[in-house]
Amino acid sequence: MSNLHRIAGQAVRGAISRGVTVATAESLTAGMVAAMLADTPGASAMLQGGVVSYQNSVKAEVLGVPPELLDAVGSVDGQVAAAMAEGARRLCRADIGVSTTGVAGPEPHDDKAVGTVFVGVATAGGSASYAYSFEGNRPEIRGQACAAALERLLEVLSSEAQPG
Questions:
Q1: pLDDT (tens digit per residue) in 131-154
Q2: CA–CA separation, 81 vs 101, rounded Å?
Q3: Cα–Cα distance between 55 and 90 in angstroms, integer?
Q4: Residue of 38, 23, 164 whose CA lies nearest to 87
Q5: Mean pLDDT throughout 25-34?
Q6: Superfamily for 3-159?
Q7: Any bridge partners for residue 24, and if so which?
Q8: pLDDT score at 95
Q9: 3-state class of 40 per DSSP?
């Protein structure tokens, strides 16, 4: 069992035991976080859905990320990650939204270096983002970003009070 599957399994079991639902909004991971969760038996009890928002137009039009924010900071930014997580949570009517945005390479994007990643998390209590700087090739950076998102989800599940 891979590390990603192990972390995803812990997140699924944690969400189910707490009666919490989760939604994803993914840019550079393009659905990997949702796929890792869905690989775990029982995920249908907690995974509401997800949005692959590779393009800024999808971030804005589907997830509700303010276009002026995207114009000002680009897509690789902590505020954007938080807004993406909020959008996933709202759109899928989930208790927790988790998002990824960043640069997997091989070229920099929005003046951000390859390996720059932001993970966003949103709950009823608000949203936050976390910055990372990963090394490796494109698949390695995407895998590290997926693991970081799952780990942040686990942290929220272990600290959040029962919803409702």
A1: 999 999 999 999 999 999 999 999
A2: 6
A3: 19
A4: 23
A5: 98
A6: CinA-like (3.90.950.20)
A7: 50, 98
A8: 98
A9: coil
Report DSSP state, residue 39: T
| Helix-helix angle 3-18:138-159, to 10 degrees | 30
User: Structural domain boundaries of the chain?
Assistant: 3-159
Residues in the chain: 164
- pLDDT recorded at residue 159: 84
pTM of the model: 0.95
Which pLDDT value is given to residue 164? 35
Chain centroid offset of residue 39 CA: 16
Mean pLDDT value of segment 42-66:
98
Which two three-digit tokens encode residue 147?
């693991």
End-to-end Cα distance, the chain = 34
The closest of 122, 80, 127 to 98, measured between CA atoms, is 122
**In which band, very low, low, confident or very high, does the pLDDT at 1 lie, cut at 50, 70 and 90?**
low
Which one, of 121, 136, 151, lies nearest residue 36 by Cα?
A: 151
Please report, for residues 107, 120, 143, 145, the alpha-carbon distance to residue 136 in angstroms, rounded to integers and kept in the order given.
13, 22, 10, 11
